[in-house]
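re: that chain from earlier
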Amino acid sequence: MDAWADLPGWARAGFWGGVAGSALLVGAAIAWWTNVRPRVVAGVMAFGSGVLISALSFELMDEAFRRGGLGSTGIGFLGGAGVYTLLNAWLSHRGARHRKRSNGQQPSESDHEGSGLSIALGALLDGIPESIVIGLSLLQGGAVSTVAVVAIFLSNLPEGLSSAAGMKRARRSAGYVFGVWGAIAVVSALASVAGYSLFAGSPPALVAGTTAVAAGAILAMLADTMIPEAFESAHDYAGLITVAGFLAAFALSKTQG
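^ sequence. v structure.
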């Protein structure tokens, strides 16, 4: 315990970012070596969406408002969603639209040239805001937000599972699939380090605004990619499962507090 406490903040941020990012590789491995039913993937994705929405509401946005006020929080939140939406739209037109789909909608390289790179960049776009949040949470209280790490891990697991299943059906190689998710897991750890290191000593309003930017990007990602995939396969049960995920994260935040 003392050795852990003696670690610099950036190292702890990188560790927790790596833990959350490792779920991508776990999900990809499950999809590659087993045949998981799409409805199971959708259920996990719906649950992870609910967990993330709860973390956004009670961890990220509430903390950003408390530290920076409504102005910087609101501007950052809308700005993050806007930037994510524009980049996501650009990548979608280049073959990354169905990067989280597991039912065969993902194009192969022969179907859409350059789609492999676009899918990889899209996955990176989805993961960076989440990872930055982990580093920022260390700045806000000296300890990482357990709810944020759990929420991101639970959202990454079905993302890796669903996307890898789609990549497998699109006839992409194992080297490509695990190379993509391994690289993104490493980048997730580095993004958490950046979130801590770049904003250490910054004014509270700047940290709050940056947290809100990440929160806006995450919510836009949920609405654009995770929730549609969950509803497509889980149908009428998607809402209930999402609510269960929200409640689980809410209870965890209150227990942690």
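Residues 38-96 form the longest helix (59 residues).
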